[in-house]
Amino acid sequence: MSLQEALANCNSYDKDIPWRRIAKQHGVVRSTFTRTYRRETQPHQHKIIAQQRLTPQQEEELVSTM
Q1: Exposed e or buried b for every residue in 4-38, given b needs 16+ CB within 10 A?
Q2: FRET pair for 30, CA 20 to 30 Å: which of 5, 11, 46, 65?
Q3: For residue 61, what pLDDT band results from cuts at 50, 70 and 90?
Q4: What range does the domain containing 14 cover?
């Protein structure tokens, strides 16, 4: 089971999501699960892109001109 499946499971609840139970069922860390659900975290790839000095398009242009 994965974090994505645990997040999808949250959609079946209107309120009072049982965070611990869902995390345990899906084998994920509760704190990571809740932070991801609340969008307090971002995927590692998004973080890398945000820290780049050049955008991927600029980088591609630069490489193609070399």
Answers
A1: eebeebeeeeeeebeeeebbeebebeeeebbebbe
A2: 46
A3: very high
A4: 3-65
Residue 37: its pLDDT value, please? 85
Cα-Cα-Cα-Cα dihedral sign, residues 35, 36, 38, 41: positive
- Written as one letter, the residue type at 2 is S
54 is written with which tokens? 């050049």
pLDDT score at 66: 85
The structure tokens 């995390």 sit at: 23
**CA pair distance 30, 23, nearest whole angstrom:** 5
